Structures are given as structure tokens and as C-alpha cells.
Inverse folding.
């Protein structure tokens, strides 16, 4: 989005207020960017949090899509409900009606949504933080507004200990702010995970998670790593990409061997996909990626970047490396033949979303009850 777009949305909400109109009280509002398709990790975590609140609270939940990828709010809402398995009782609100409501709780989910906090009426306002927003772009209007707007909030729900610490270090008067954190969790059935069997193949199978609508997934690094791998061991590897339709990326990159385009995968199919592979690359520059947990839950090692956001993530199957393609390639060649033994059941149980969010809820529920 550009600055003009988000300021125009803010103006529309403000100007739609009817004078001398008593505000109607509603329960919980999520302010989110409408996803264009299934497969967004950020939208998936938001959907899981919405479903958790729906299950644990009697309050009604509403969504305002400040950005739509479809012509109508209803089309956008149906994509989110069906594409992300959201509780069907959650309702969407039109922009024209928004300023006539007062909400008990308003939950803002990205740095563009923070612009709207002073035109949406709410008793309690939260930041649901999944990535360090200021890292999305180089210094400029977005990072300046993100830094300024973040200071307007008092309650933060952060998707990692690292993010919670970044908030404490960055906002004014952090000692009097309420900063909660949880770790990302997988939605899988333990019995199903432990029933999956690995089938050996003649070639070593490597796949990388790719989402090019944001720089934080580091496609440029993946591309150079694949070139290094092809140069070093073209006969013994099979390379794939997943996370989106990668046909155009593969064509434009002119790889000297065939790269499989596995496209967008349903999240329920991820365990089967990961156990078919010997190694997964899942880079994310602004917080660690949930795919780390999905992959190691079936015993497939995963490579991520050795940067601040991954410092607190530690497991033998998670290999952290410098962002230089040659270093990553060397780590892959050293790792590719390790024993793909699944972690024990007790550890995988700690990775489950229900267990991780329930731990957060022990402290967070006081804000909602």
C-alpha cells in the first residue's frame, strides 16, 4: 500500500460518522488485510487466534478488511472463512458502518492497520504482532510511521519472545505497557504425524518456501543457493519450490536443471510433503517461520538464517546459517545425509498450537474477561 491509500481509508472511516448518533457497542473487532488466496502464514495465525477466542469467549467477533483483494467485502470474507478454516460465526463489517460502533476490544494485526486506531472506537486496543514491522522496508515513510504508531498502544500480543523483547526495547514507557508473547504452533494430529513413513529416493530432495509478495521470505537468497547446489551436485539432487505458483520465477531464473513447482499446498498436507523431502529451506527476515516446527515434527531438517529473530530457536534439526549462498550450500551438503529421526512425541506435543496458545491464555485472558 502507499501512504495516500491508507490515509484515504482513514478519512473514509472518519467522515462516515453520523453526527449525534449513539454508538452501538460490539464485542471484538480484528482489523486485518484481506488475503488474496489461501497460504499466507500471517493470515493463518490470525485465523487460529480468532478461532481460539471464538471457542473460549461468548463475545461476537467481527472483522474489518482495511484492504481487499476482491470487489466486495463478502467475497473477501468468504475467501478468509473458507481458505483459512475460520469460524463461520465471525462476521465482516463494511467501512461505511465502522465509525458508528464502539468495540470492547480492537485487535490491529499489521503496521498499516495501526494508522486507524484513532478513527475506530474501542475500549481496549491491541497490537497482534507477528513480524517486526520496521524491517519490512528500508528507512522511509513506512518505517517512520510504524515506529511512531507502535507507541500509541498499551497492549501487545507478540508471536515470539524475540518480538516481545523488540517491543520492550523500542517503545516509550515499556515498563507500564502490557506485553504478552507466545511461540508459533502447528495444527496437526499427533497420531497422524507419527503414522507417516519416510520413503527413500535415489536423489536427495530439497524444497524451499517462497512468497515473493514480501521481501522477508528472501527469494533472492533461495535463487542463488539453488544455483550453488546445481553447480556442486547436479546429478544427486531434486529441487522444488512451494508456497505459491513459482512457474514464472523458475522460468525467469534460467536454472540449468528442472526445478519442480509444487505451488500452494493446503496446510493439512504439509506433514506429508515435508516427510517426502530430505531438507527444507524456510527463510524469514522479520520473525522465524512456522514451517520450522512443521518440518521438524516429521523429522525433516530445516535451514533458516542465523539472525536476531532466530536466536531463541534451538533444536538439532534446525540448522542456522549465514545468509551468504555459499555458506548455505555448504551447510546443506553437510546436513543432507543426517539421520531423519522424528523428535519424540512429548516434544512434538509441545509444538501444538492448542498447547502454546493455552499457555498464553493463562495470562492474557484477564484482558478479555
Amino acid at each position: 500500500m502507499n501512504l495516500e491509500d491508507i490515509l484515504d481509508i482513514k478519512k473514509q472511516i472518519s467522515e462516515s460518522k453520523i453526527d449525534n448518533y449513539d454508538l452501538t457497542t460490539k464485542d471484538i473487532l480484528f482489523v486485518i488485510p484481506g488475503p488474496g488466496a489461501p497460504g499466507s502464514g500471517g493470515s493463518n495465525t490470525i485465523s487460529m487466534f480468532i478461532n481460539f477466542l471464538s471457542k473460549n469467549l461468548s463475545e461476537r467477533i467481527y472483522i474489518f478488511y482495511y484492504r481487499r483483494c476482491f470487489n466486495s467485502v463478502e467475497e473477501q470474507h468468504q475467501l478468509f472463512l473458507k481458505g483459512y478454516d475460520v469460524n463461520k460465526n465471525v462476521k465482516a463489517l463494511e467501512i461505511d458502518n465502522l465509525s458508528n460502533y464502539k468495540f470492547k476490544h480492537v485487535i490491529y494485526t499489521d503496521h498499516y492497520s495501526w494508522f486507524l486506531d484513532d478513527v475506530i472506537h474501542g475500549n481496549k486496543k491491541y497490537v497482534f504482532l507477528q513480524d517486526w514491522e520496521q524491517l519490512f522496508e528500508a528507512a522511509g515513510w513506512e518505517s517512520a510511521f510504524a515506529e511512531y504508531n507502535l507507541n500509541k498502544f498499551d497492549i501487545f500480543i507478540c508471536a515470539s519472545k524475540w518480538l516481545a523483547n523488540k517491543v520492550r526495547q523500542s517503545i516509550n514507557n515499556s515498563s507500564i505497557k502490557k506485553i504478552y508473547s507466545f511461540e508459533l504452533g502447528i495444527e496437526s494430529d499427533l497420531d497422524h504425524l507419527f503414522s507417516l513413513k519416510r520413503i527413500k529416493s535415489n536423489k536427495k530432495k530439497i524444497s524451499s518456501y517462497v512468497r515473493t509478495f514480501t521481501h522477508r521470505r528472501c527469494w533472492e537468497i533461495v535463487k542463488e543457493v539453488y544455483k550453488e547446489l546445481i553447480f556442486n551436485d547436479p546429478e544427486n539432487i531434486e529441487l522444488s519450490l512451494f508456497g505459491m505458483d513459482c512457474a514464472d520465477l523458475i522460468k525467469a531464473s534460467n536454472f540449468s536443471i528442472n526445478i519442480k513447482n509444487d505451488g500452494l499446498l493446503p496446510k493439512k498436507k504439509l506433514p506429508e510433503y515435508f516427510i517426502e523431502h530430505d531438507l527444507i529451506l524456510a527463510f524469514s527476515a522479520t520473525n522465524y517461520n512456522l514451517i520450522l516446527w512443521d518440518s521438524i515434527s516429521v523429522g525433516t531438517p530445516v535451514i533458516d538464517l542465523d539472525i536476531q529473530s532466530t536466536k531463541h530457536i534451538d533444536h538439532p534439526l534446525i540448522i542456522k546459517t549465514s545468509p551468504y549462498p555459499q555458506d548455505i550450500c555448504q551447510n546443506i551438503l553437510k546436513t543432507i545425509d543426517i539421520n531423519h529421526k522424528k523428535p519424540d512425541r512429548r516434544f512434538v506435543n509441545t509444538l501444538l498450537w492448542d498447547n502454546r496458545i493455552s499457555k498464553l491464555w493463562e495470562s492474557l485472558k484477564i484482558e478479555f474477561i
Summary: The mean pLDDT is 92. The two ends are 35 Å apart (CA to CA). The first strand starts at residue 24 and ends at 33.
